[in-house]
Structures are given as C-alpha cells and as structure tokens.
Amino acid sequence: MLALLQGRTHCVLTGICVRVNDQCLTECEKTEVTFALMSEEEIRDYLDTRDYVDKAGSYGIQSKAAPYIRNISGDYYNVVGFPVRRFYEMIGKMLG
Fold this sequence. Notes:
Blueprint: H1 2-5, E1 9-20, E2 23-35, H2 40-49, E3 69-73, H3 76-80, H4 84-95
Antiparallel strand pairs: 1-2, 2-3
C-alpha cells in the first residue's frame, strides 16, 4: 500500500450523517494527502515500526508516517479519524 501511495496524492473521504428526530443531514468531507517519494529502505523501516497496524490506508499521519507527508489539503482531523469541525457545523445546521 505504501509503495502505491508514495510520490502520489490520494483522497481521504468521510461520510457523516446527523439525524435529529425525523430530519437527516448527510455530508462528505474530502482531504487530499500527498506522500513524498519513499525509498524501499524507508518503506521497510516504516513497516518495522508497525505503526500501520489498525490504520486505514496503512499509515498514521499523526505519528511515524508524518515525515513522509509532503502536503495536506483539507481537514487534518479527517485523515486522523473524524472531521470534528464538519460535524460541529452540521449539528449547528440541524439545531440552529
């Protein structure tokens, strides 16, 4: 997976649904992540850390994969796990 991601940009998409009584609001958060080129040795070294275990996409942007991230466009928290700001805004729309 890392060999496919390195040197490229990929999208992280998270769908959110907020339901209040009979009203339902659904949205999608999109974040683009660009990996730097990685040598085979760097990929092996990263795999040796086992940081990829239990991570969607085989990497943890918030930990040992951080040095390999060249750019991020969008919500960092979407990549880490959940787009809190988008969720907060959606709650505001539903209740406000």
